[in-house]
């Protein structure tokens, strides 16, 4: 590149980069893509000076996220907009964003400085209320905007994270979705009885086993017992009476009575901890499992398998972090704790990724490949031929480089089923880990069938709470199987991704599938909703004159950028620099 062009990029990065008096913005005035902007175009709005507690930031890159589809369809009725009239008070998409500080309010000058780069964690809470960036707080589909206490002084303090090191703008924006992927493998479930909570221990009259409860029985303030063996009842009574807690006995209940018990003793919110002794009836376990409180634990202790699979609310595993734990007994407390309840992929194991061809599915596959102590065999399913080809071309060579094997698989083609493939490749044992990135309950249930007895099912895609699927719960207490799920990420998750990126342990740029300038934002939203590209779509708000373009198309349209792509037409910081040098118009 010429010295003049390098000088232009250096100017872009500098603290004295120009700030215009007006900026382009894609405000959202109602439900539907047609209500993003005006007549398919962005609008000009003034660039305001920051007050003492505000920053003026330049938006450098924005990733398009499928979680915005619900907002686009619902408009002001979306849960995070609280029935807002968007015609009068618009919002703006773009929660996967990275910023550069351009001006600093007087009260913030000891914390921030012009030219400083920031990633943003959009899952913001103020006074316990969700006020997410890109939802309640207008997001990043704008060139310049102010951020203040709504971002910098909310419940967790500041929700921006300094970006240090040689991290590109697209990479920094994609640290947020990557943080969601990382969060899927960090412990989010509560794995001890809740302190001050309500525990329900339910058994049956024919069980005379001598159970133990070696630890944790002192945590609940209220313990409800139903048909528990006499020896355990005496143990519970001594514990509760000894510390002034509350003991409630409700014997002879049937599954039809459980909801009344929930209303009577838990105000209908569910029990914080439920312990089921000697489970035999899938109907009974299904009914009891409906009564877990948010972030509650459901502890199964028994030696015999259930008579059928159990109807489990898979939406709540994802959104409410309901935990299903268990052990053969006799110690009820042995079910708890992280030692028995893993959340990371099994080292050297077999991992199956269902719906692996989409942007988030690809991230899971890439993470597993790049994970030093990760699985050695990966099976990635995808029914879209183009996405399957992208998996094959983009990740099979990467797996080979890391000494691993990746098998892309279309379950809709050929005579072999996914179950048969997994059993053949894993020696009839099944998969150690199954990660589902498709929000379809029957698919989640069928994915569980390929698990090894002590496997882990990760429900990454969310289905609405109240969506049930049949799962084999016997393997939870007999073989230590895991059913987990997560929603969103935290500041710590995003910091971890930035650290891994700086250290070269993670390559968020590999997730990019298409790019576009500011004018392409509405087209990018449509393409994201239609799944037109296998990877993430990234909009560069400071770039003009660049339509939405897949990376494989850059050779034809933007050859000066394409020549800096990595192997397999992957996005790189060098390509990003060329894009800025060629198409930034200060």
Descriptive account of the structure:
28% of the residues lie in helices and 23% in strands. The protein is of the alpha/beta class and 586 residues long. It folds into three domains: 3-184 and 492-583, Quinone Oxidoreductase, Chain A, domain 1 (Alpha-Beta Complex); 198-335, NAD(P)-binding Rossmann-like Domain (Rossmann fold, 3-Layer(aba) Sandwich); 350-459, Rossmann fold (3-Layer(aba) Sandwich), CATH 3.40.50. The strands form seven sheets. Strands 4, 6, 7, 10, 11, 26, 27 and 28 form an eight-stranded mixed sheet that branches. Strands 14-13-12-15-16-18 form a six-stranded parallel sheet, sandwiched between helices. Strands 21-20-19-22-23-25 form a six-stranded parallel sheet, sandwiched between helices. Helix 1 crosses helix 19. The longest helix has 17 residues, at 385-401. The two termini are 19 Å apart. The relative contact order is 0.12. The model has no long low-confidence stretch (mean pLDDT 95).
Please render the helix and strand layout as text.
Layout: H1 3-13, E1 22-25, E2 27-28, E3 43-46, E4 55-63, H2 68-74, E5 91-92, E6 96-104, E7 117-120, E8 125-126, E9 129-130, E10 144-147, H3 149-152, E11 160-162, H4 169-173, H5 175-183, E12 198-202, E13 222-226, H6 230-242, E14 246-249, H7 258-266, E15 271-277, H8 282-289, E16 292-301, E17 310-313, H9 314-319, E18 323-327, E19 350-354, H10 359-370, E20 377-381, H11 385-401, E21 405-409, H12 418-425, E22 431-436, H13 441-448, E23 451-459, E24 468-471, H14 474-479, E25 482-485, H15 491-502, E26 512-517, H16 521-530, E27 536-540, E28 549-550, H17 554-557, H18 559-562, H19 573-583
Parallel strand pairs: 12-13, 12-15, 13-14, 15-16, 16-18, 19-20, 19-22, 20-21, 22-23, 23-25, 26-27
Antiparallel strand pairs: 1-3, 2-5, 4-6, 4-10, 4-27, 6-7, 7-11, 8-9, 17-24, 26-28
Helix pairs in contact: 1-19, 5-10, 5-15, 10-11
């Amino acid at each position: 590149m010429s010295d003049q062009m390098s000088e232009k990029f250096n100017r872009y990065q500098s603290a004295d980069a120009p700030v215009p008096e007006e900026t382009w913005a894609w405000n959202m005035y109602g439900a539907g893509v047609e209500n993003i902007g005006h007549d398919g175009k962005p609008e000009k709005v003034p660039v305001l000076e920051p007050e003492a507690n505000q920053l003026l930031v330049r938006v450098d890159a924005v990733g398009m996220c499928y979680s915005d589809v619900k907002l686009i369809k619902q408009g002001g009725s979306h849960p995070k907009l609280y029935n807002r009239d968007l015609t009068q008070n618009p919002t703006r998409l773009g929660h996967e964003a990275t910023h550069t500080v351009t001006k600093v309010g007087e009260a913030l000058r000891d914390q921030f400085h012009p030219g400083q780069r920031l990633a943003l964690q959009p899952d913001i809470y103020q006074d316990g209320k969700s006020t997410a960036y890109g939802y309640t707080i207008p997001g990043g589909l704008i060139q310049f905007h102010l951020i203040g206490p709504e971002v910098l002084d909310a419940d967790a303090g500041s929700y921006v994270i300094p970006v240090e090191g040689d991290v590109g703008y697209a990479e920094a924006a994609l640290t947020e979705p990557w943080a969601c992927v990382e969060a899927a493998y960090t412990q989010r479930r509560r794995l001890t009885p809740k302190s001050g909570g309500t525990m329900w221990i339910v058994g049956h009259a024919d069980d005379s086993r001598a159970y133990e409860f070696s630890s944790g029985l002192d945590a609940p303030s209220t313990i409800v017992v139903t048909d528990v063996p006499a020896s355990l009842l005496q143990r519970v009574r001594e514990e509760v009476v000894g510390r002034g807690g509350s003991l409630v006995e409700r014997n002879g209940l049937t599954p039809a009575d459980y909801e009344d018990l929930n209303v009577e003793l838990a105000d209908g919110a569910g029990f914080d901890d439920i312990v089921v002794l000697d489970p035999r009836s899938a109907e009974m376990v299904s009914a009891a499992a409906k009564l877990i409180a948010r972030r509650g634990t459901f502890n199964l202790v028994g030696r015999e398998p259930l008579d059928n699979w159990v109807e489990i609310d898979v939406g709540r595993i994802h959104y409410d972090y309901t935990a299903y734990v268990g052990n053969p007994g006799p110690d009820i407390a042995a079910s708890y704790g992280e030692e028995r309840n893993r959340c990371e992929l099994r080292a050297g194991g077999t991992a199956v990724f269902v719906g692996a061809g989409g942007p988030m599915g690809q991230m899971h596959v890439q993470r597993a490949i790049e994970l030093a102590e990760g699985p050695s065999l990966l099976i990635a399913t995808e029914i879209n031929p183009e996405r399957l080809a992208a998996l094959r071309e983009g990740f099979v060579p990467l797996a080979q480089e890391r000494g691993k094997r990746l098998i892309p698989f279309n379950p809709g083609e050929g005579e072999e089923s996914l179950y048969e493939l997994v059993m053949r490749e894993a020696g009839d044992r099944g998969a150690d880990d199954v990660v589902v990135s498709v929000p379809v309950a029957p698919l989640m249930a069928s994915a569980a069938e390929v698990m090894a007895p002590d496997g882990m099912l990760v429900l990454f895609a969310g289905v609405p709470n109240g969506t049930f699927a049949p799962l084999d719960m016997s393997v939870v207490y007999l073989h230590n199987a895991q059913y987990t799920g997560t929603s969103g990420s935290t500041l710590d998750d995003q910091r971890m991704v930035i650290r891994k990126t700086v250290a070269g342990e993670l390559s968020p740029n590999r997730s990019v599938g298409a790019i576009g300038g500011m004018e392409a934002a509405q087209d990018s939203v449509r393409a994201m909703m239609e799944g037109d590209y296998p990877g993430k779509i990234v909009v560069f708000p400071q770039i003009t004159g660049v339509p939405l373009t897949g990376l494989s198309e850059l050779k034809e349209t933007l050859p000066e950028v394409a020549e800096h792509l990595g192997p397999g037409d992957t996005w790189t910081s060098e390509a990003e620099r060329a894009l800025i040098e060629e198409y930034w118009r200060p």
